[in-house]
Amino acid sequence: MSLRDRLGRLTGEGTQPGRSDPPGELISELRRRIEEVVNRRPVPGPQAHSGRDRTGIPLERLVTGEEVRTPRGGLFFSRSVLAGSHRHGVFRVGDLGHIDMRSAALLAGSDEIAAFEPGHALFLDTETTGLAGGTGTFPFLIGLGWFEGDSFVTTQLFARDFSEEIPMLCLLDELARDRRFLVTFNGRAFDLNLLSARFVLNRMEDTLSNMPHLDLLHPGRRLLRHRMDNARLTTIEACVLGLTRDDDVPGYEIPRRYFDWLRSRDGSLMEDVFRHNRLDIVSMAALLKHLADLVAGGPGRESAHPGDVLCAARLHEERGDTQTALSMYERIAGSPDSRVAISALRACSLIYKKASRWEDAVLIWEGMISRDPLDLFAAEELAKFCEHRRGEFKRAALIVKTVLEGSRTLSPEERSSLEHRLNRLARKSSAP
User: What is the pTM of this model?
Assistant: First the structure.
């Protein structure tokens, strides 16, 4: 197929069979057609708006807000205030700002955050033209939230078309300068990288990248994932925060809605997107409150899920706060959830062992063996204690032999290790 034929197929124009033009005329014709292709503008078809009527309802009639001007141009700006008496799931909004900042710092892995106050936090979430990221992804809606006294404020910066990106980033920079640290949900991997790229592409200073950052996805996943199918924010809302969204717009549908908005300027396309974004921001504040209370062992500790407390205790232990971890383990050692109780007892015994609190540790190991003589962990620890601390070789050998003969779940490595220990104990028992 000739180049002319290919171009004809691309432009939808037929070619005349057998026509042969001089090279110069052919090149001029090709240039003309290429220019036509480049300058064409697609006309939206009847399905462009997912079945919606192109009523063109102004956005201002559906979303509280107005145009604001910056030195670099205008954009749409929405501001909402939730009063302290408003309920978001199981929480009162007025309670969300009472956050233990040492616990927030622990969640973030940043000691710097402990020096701040809850009112210094800037909650941030974006809605974009795609979920893959990269320089081609455009953040058309930036949602922000912060505490003001007993209330929670959300503001939303909306670029009504691509030309309003710079004004939107200018206003974002201005608002961010009043805050001290960021709170996001998966912002470390997505939102902040995306916004940083947009600042760079527009040759603007990136204020956000220098702010301490608490990404709630990671502690949320670590402390709560054990009892949920996934760690999405909407899943956490339903399972932990007591909030179920009705008629929420699916995240995958949001990019298409924005492109439809660009064609139709129909505010009904974006109304649900604004609501979705605003709920995300408020839920981040509620999740931070919940996680900080959980880690601090504060209000509601009696009703806290024992599995969550177990995960929080492990976090404290890994960060070097053994005393707080031990206190939490001891709280749930009697949990009706046997998996949680056994894990807590094991953790307590190892802390006691490291602190040379042998009586406390032995009491736990003996109790575990009395309930289950084949408990490998308790058997090994008690046998080691009898062998190395008490010189009770025969008792240690009996404990090991019971597990070897009775357990059907030992791995080859575990069985080999126990057999090696039993042989050593036999030699020690027969030694003069």
Answer: 0.84
